Amino acid sequence: MARSIIPVLLAASLQAANVVATPPNIPSNAVAQTQLDALTVASAGSSSGYSRDLFPHWISQGNSCDTRDLVLVRDGTGVTTGTGCSISGGSWYSPYDGATWTQASDVDIDHVVPLANAWRSGASGWTTDEREAFANDLDNPQLIAVTDNVNQQKGDSGPEEWIPSRTAYHCTYGKMWVAVKYTYGLTVTSAEKSALEGLLDAC
């Protein structure tokens, strides 16, 4: 599991310079298409009862780090830390819009498949532990450091409503979204599937 390799991940990331990191386990084009074809198409479920608090996130990952810290370290360049796991320096390139930031406060950690979207597509029936695992998933392409206001613009939108402004990232974004939905057995709407097919066509 990810937690067992955290000290190694942190040390290696802090020592490396100019590392261009990406979320793990992004599928190949062919695998993403196979996964998309396997997804169940269904109408979006109700948002009734949804709360972000039902998806405990940025949990402790050991070594004085939480999930957000580890994604900032993974996705940044020249990241340094102060006391504990507080981020004291580095830069972050946001693949959604092509902006580079040197303050961690300008960066959000995006849930590629937003928590509310997951709720409407199957997570409403999960246990709290299952939702916590989803919200802090460091093993699949579900978390990525991006410009904060871009993440806020995205909100809980699916790809039928919002995609990154950088067309060069459309293929990767589509593959990440498909992989997460497939891994967690979440459904897609017909409009969402059509949008994902368009994104994979860009590969």
TrEMBL record:
Keyword match NAD? no
**Ranges of residues in domain GmrSD restriction endonucleases C-terminal:** 102-196
InterPro entries the record matches: GmrSD_C
Q: Which Pfam family name is an example for this entry?
A: GmrSD_C
Establish whether keyword Cell division is in the entry. Answer: no
UniProt entry keywords in alphabetical sequence: Signal
Signal peptide position in this chain? Answer: 1-21
Name of this chain's protein: GmrSD restriction endonucleases C-terminal domain-containing protein
Q: Which organism is it from?
A: Aspergillus pseudoustus
* Phylogenetic classification of the source organism: Eukaryota, Fungi, Dikarya, Ascomycota, Pezizomycotina
